[in-house]
Amino acid sequence: MADFYQNGTITTLHNLVDRPLEEMEKELLSFSRVRPMSLVLPSLYSELQGPALGHIINEICEVPYLNEIVIGLDQADEAEYKHAKDEFSRLPQHHRVLWNDGPRLRKIDSLLEEKGLAPKEMGKGRNVWYCYGYILASGRAEAVALHDCDIITYDRSLLARLIYPVANPSFNYEFAKGYYARIADNKMNGRVSRLLVTPLIRALKKVLGHKEYLDFLDSFRYPLSGEFSMRVDVLNDLRIPSDWGLEIGVLSEMNRNYSTNRLCQVDICDNYDHKHQPLSAEDAALGLSKMSTDICKAIFRKLATQGEVFTNETFRTIKATYFRVALDFVETYYNDARMNGLALDRHKEEEAVELFAENIMHAGDYFLENPMETPFIPSWNRVISAIPDILDRLYEAVEEDNA
What we know:
Blueprint: E1 11-13, H1 21-31, E2 37-44, H2 53-60, E3 66-74, H3 78-88, E4 95-99, H4 103-114, H5 124-138, E5 143-146, H6 157-167, E6 175-179, E7 183-184, E8 187-188, H7 191-208, H8 212-218, E9 228-231, E10 240-241, H9 246-257, E11 263-267, H10 287-305, H11 312-339, H12 346-369, E12 376-377, H13 380-386, H14 390-402
Parallel strand pairs: 1-11, 2-3, 2-5, 3-4, 6-11
Antiparallel strand pairs: 5-9, 6-9, 7-8, 10-12
Helix pairs in contact: 1-6, 5-14, 7-8, 7-10, 7-11, 7-12, 9-10, 10-12, 11-12
């Protein structure tokens, strides 16, 4: 059970009493009459063969308050798309599957590319961006939640707690970030958050001095969680990366666009487990190696937009400071794991820290060598300005695919 402590600059909504799910869903159903709700599910086709997604669909079938479910489907040919439609057809709620690799949405993507507005690379960010565009086009929701499709420990209470802060008309939150513990198979997981993000933020504070943005990031208990919810008006001006920097990029946008009293984080489950990425020390383009580099780039870019000047010497200092801070965290997590009867391999933890330290330098080098890069997907406001009927086109393409 969580504590009730409030720290940092972001409101924390705890799970203090294990409130009955039926009670919360009854409340959400009443909210839905004045604030209709949607759920976005970014999915790879391969996840339909995995251990999680079938169970997730079964759980969502029992959710009474959703007005719309939007599934973004990546890496699927025509036969696989039809199979995915069949799998999702048991959802009783109004739902649509975006066939991102299909000819109609590819045509939309080509139109955007002609204007220099298309997402530059495949990935979760691109998937989510098109789903958000469809939600704006359909006009069926005022609050929207997003969660991953590989959550092995899923039950629908996660969704109820995730969307509640932005669905409750008496709350003023525009955005809610989910958090949770990462424990599975008697081990402590969440290496990138534990061993990269938090130590890097603390190192940046030491090297760069006090920064409101760093305090903001440091306030989130699980900054890399793929579960968040927001009011639909947030979607119009949201600029997100298409790579592994998505979660940090979304937080950075919230920091840019909203006062902290309009943002919160919410405890959505006692424990959370999903598909684990390999460390991939031998290939910087895969696994946690690529993820860590993309996350570092996202943080460095944000600090640069606030006027921070980076040099090779700065990044070397950041790396050295990070390395010391991260090794101290390894000791902290080892003690925490032992006290809770969990296993934690110090050797593997320190191997991860060594890789992340290298990737801080790689991300710094990339940042300095590519000063003209524009890594963010344009906001839907900008796209609509360039192509006024784009949402109509997107809506028609999705409807025709689903017909």
